[in-house]
Amino acid sequence: MSSLRPSPIAPTVDFDRGGVQHGFLRLPHSRDDSAWGSVMIPICVIRNGKGPTALLTGGNHGDEYEGPLALYELARTLDPDQVSGTVIIVPAMNYPAFRAGTRTSPIDKGNMNRSFPGRPDGTVTQKIADYFQRELLPRADIVFDFHSGGKTLDFVPFCAAHTLPDKALEQKAFAAVAAFSAPFSMRMTEIDAIGMYDTAAEEMGKVFVTTELGGGGTSRAETVRIARRGILNVLRRAGIVAGAVETGKTQWLDMPSGDCFCFAEDDGMIETMIDLGEPVEAGVVLARIHSTGRTGVAPQDIRAKMSGMLAARHFPGLVKAGDCAAVVAVKVD
Ligand code: CA
User: Considering the domain 258-332 in this protein, what is its CATH number?
Assistant: First the structure.
């Protein structure tokens, strides 16, 4: 647990003031190029009267762009007259990582989504996590954290929530996923949920919703449109933003067990044998890893452990042993 030491982060916004505020979470960071310098994490607070609070984040991983693209625009365009309650927007949560275009922070190599609950006296990444844990999450009724695959993964576009012991909370999260109306809606299983923002929010009893909208360290026109429409839908369904939810067709998916995940056991050049969204039969070759050190070596097959649909794949052309090579999900009605 965090000590009771106060956070070193000073917000330049007042969370209780009405209207629109564009400011910063200022985190002191003394370094070679700035002796008494700070990390300035952009934050926007849009508040109008009484109502629930939504906490919206992108850039938890710094090389994922649909969330920041949707959230910088939402901060710029959301009219407080359309709001009942409060919208707190942090479009680039791990701002040092976002500035560098990397998954983890260039300052301390911290992975924001493995740093919770954080520490007020820890690394820069741990200090940001601690501020979310103790200052921002407690204010929120609904927490929405955008993800995509980053430079090393690519996903079919989906909105997701987790199976939870608290079934009433789980139902609220999946209702928000349905409102988002991505082409796919996922009941998501994590490889290792320890230290995740998701887990921190859920353990606090918050409605937590996330996405995987694409990847490859870039964004596409379609996935950014999905992000922009989806987040407004979630805010409308929560009664925070006026207007009707624009529903669209969604295919529900499940990740029923760890057999969803296929990991590379060799280094080499990866050949995708099935594309994203295509059906998968158990035992089929999803990808092959070609040895590149010499000619005459047969490729290693990566086979599906279950039937379903290819939901994610390794993105770069080269792969290392231990990399997540493919994720299979099951279609459900
Ligand atoms: Ca991510």
Answer: 2.40.50.100
Instruction: Give the bridge partners for 160, in sequence order.
Output: 186, 210
CA 237 – ligand 1 centroid, Å:
25
Ion ligand 1: residues, CB within 5 A, are 61, 147
Q: Could you state, in order of their start, the residue ranges of all structural domains in the chain?
A: 2-254, 258-332
Residue-by-residue DSSP string for 50-117: SS-EEEEE--SSTT--HHHHHHHHHHHH--GGGBSEEEEEES-SSHHHHHHTSSS-TTT---GGG-TT
Say whether 196 sits in a helix, a strand or coil.
coil
Domain formed by 2-254, architecture: 3-Layer(aba) Sandwich (3.40)
Tens digits of per-residue pLDDT, 266-297? 999 999 999 999 999 999 999 999 999 999 99
pLDDT per residue as tens digits for the range 53-79: 999 999 999 999 999 999 999 999 999
Cα 212 to averaged position of ligand 1 atoms, centre (Å): 7
